[in-house]
Amino acid sequence: MNAFRAMKAIGINEDKGENFTDEAEVHDEPERPLKRLRSRSQEGQSSQSMMGGTSLRKPKLDDEGKLGANSLQRSPDMMKLQPGPSDSQSTQVRHAYKGKEPLLPQVSPREKRPIVERPSHGVQFKDREVDPDSVLIPKQKVVDSYALIKPKDEPFTDDLPPDDVPRYEAPIAVIRPDSFSKEDISGRSFLTGKTDDQEPPASHFGTEEDRGDSVPASSSSRRANSELAPVLEESPANLEIASSSLGEVKISLSCNSLLGRPNFHMPSQDELLKSTQEKCLRSYKIFDPNFSVMQMLKDMCDCFLELATDSSRESQERLMNVIPSISALKRSAAYSALGVGGVKGMRTHCSANGSTESNGGRELRDPESCSLVVVPQHQLTFEELRSLHDFNDITKGEEVIEISWLNEINNECPPPFMYIPQNVVFQNAYLRFTLSQINAEDCCSTCIGDCLSSTTICVCACETGNEFAYTSEGLIREDFLEECISMTRDPQRQCLSYCKACPLERSKNDEILEPCKGHLKRKYIKECWSKCACHKRCGNRVVQRGIRCKLQVFFTPEGKGWGLRTLEKLPKGTFVCEYIGEILTNKELHERNVQRTRGTNNEWHTYPVLLDAYWFLKGALKEEEALCLDATFYGNVARFINHRCLDSNLIEIPVKVETPDQHYYHLAFFTAREVNALEELTWDYGLDFDDDDHPVEVFKCLCSSKFCRNMKRPNSKFILKLYGPYGGQFGIFTFFLKVIIEFELCMFCVCAINFFMTVEYLSIG
Ligand SMILES: C[S@@+](CC[C@H](N)C(=O)[O-])C[C@H]1O[C@@H](n2cnc3c(N)ncnc32)[C@H](O)[C@@H]1O
């Protein structure tokens, strides 16, 4: 039975699945997971477990709807194991009653009995002979074993059991692994099987068809009904769930592989909890909707086994990492760039027999093994875990608002990257935000409150023509916005600047330094900042306050991969988000590009942006001053904004905030027109789709704009060659040239056809 069905069966609301997202927050900050783990553990200690709690009237779920915390904290009790052959027979078995007639007719309450007859090192759970019609049933206040009860045909009475014997509410069902029903079919139902003392046939999880989600058929299932958790040496764990009509649930785990381990020792409950929780954090993307509680419980058995046998070092080798998004990770260039595998770096392990088999990254499922899974070559680090995404908030709490992600098209997850809300220097970029660097005369040190409502012109407005770029509603002023749009899109208004020794050309390290191909000049906004005396909520502080719109990362249906959309209507001139990434020097970017093209995995999804608008201002920019932003590994939601040729609904505008130096600025996206709720947000990357020299492989544009520059025409190459430098650098200009020339070619053809038709007509006439 898979976890989902099992959860349904034990009365867990499916919706609870979303609560797993809370787990993702654990990864937010280094301290949080620890706090969370501790508090969980404490929680667990004070709460009742399903296994041993005093009441089983409701399924014992924690606040988050998870079985994990509570069930985990009781599991050591549940498996009160004592090492040594003699101790193996000491496990208690108690039985629940309902009224005079015991539900477990052949077993007296609180009677201690051996679990299994075999005098081995492990611990085995076994019961006495029972009625063949019995079913497994959990008991209250019973910590050590299963019980067997008669099925429902005998009416329950209202008689109370002895005080110290827990009452059990009308238990009716035992949830078994799916495969168990197969056994039923084959006539070996545990409900009807005979009790015997023979060793059960070897069987283990690996024989299950769906090991990932389903609970493996335990050998106990296949054996006589009196064996509640028979032990098999190759089976590391058995899991069974029993429930009653009232939703009472008991989950029982048995770690069978303890058998034959001479170095077995009893781990403490804390050890077990910590180890299990750590394993979960390492192995699961817990916020994933497919998160399997069953798998988590089975992992707990593994942890127990490892702790009990001091095999933690060995277990590092054998550790299973089942990551729901592993396929997405494998496909990701960012993942391989992080050095955690990629297609090449995956290997498989057989945790049943310790043998390791490399398959180059394919997932294997060996029917003979209890756990064969794909694992990265090393454990996911905390940083890597951070790259997995919470679907309620891809920002992991880094932004003021939450930004969800949604895929209604397929089961892909967003590619892994580290969400950062502010640009971060990668290595060599020169960037110092110091107060002393900022001239006092460039700041409104005498302003009070909101600069926008001041009667005098604030010094911070000087750079934008003595008028603030923002309106009191927080939008960009219409005329300012229109000018920015036309300077970016209109070939007539586009203005190029040329630097003396272009950093782009220099970074190529070619023998001959090519001349600068020109950079688009842009208008910029200057916001008030720390040296300004105005209020933090001053109207001239918009971009620095971060994302305020309701946005969503979604999987586009047109084949563009992930995209960003707004969940609310946005007026024209609204600040949407900043393009955030690593701040690289051009040289660093060039080196990355070389790696990208050389890399085996050439899926590079983001396009770095140059902060080149003011390069022309400095005579010769130092290498560490020619900067760009790369959001491939570190970035914000802007990395999901797809391209649209020319008429995109976003426009990027440079914004100066904390530095007076022109070589660094923020690149902020504002709406270029009113945008409706659920509309995809797009911007024009300025790509030239015909430029074969582009460092990052250009995609086939699916923007569906009527101005799309990626409509392949036979003569486009020719036109590009004709208009060389423009074609290479200025896509928009090239586009218009192409349109004009093609229009002329068309007109020429039409005229020619007309001419020949007329000649023919005249000759006929
Ligand atoms: C900055 S990323 C945008 C997010 C990306 N779609 C993703 O799934 O992560 C740029 C990549 O998105 C895809 N893309 C963006 N705009 C596109 C368009 N108009 N047509 C086709 N693919 C596009 C391309 O694969 C491109 O390499």
Automatic annotation (TrEMBL):
It is found in: Chromosome; Nucleus. Residues 549-686 form the SET domain. GO terms for molecular function: histone methyltransferase activity; zinc ion binding. Residues 443-546 form the Pre-SET domain. Residues 109-131 have a biased composition (Basic and acidic residues). GO terms for cellular component: chromosome; nucleus. Residues 42-56 have a biased composition (Low complexity). Keywords: Chromosome, Metal-binding, Nucleus, Transferase, Zinc. The keyword Metal-binding applies. Residues 1-131, 184-230 are annotated as: Disordered. This is SET domain-containing protein. It comes from Hevea brasiliensis. The lineage of its organism: Eukaryota, Viridiplantae, Streptophyta, Embryophyta, Tracheophyta.
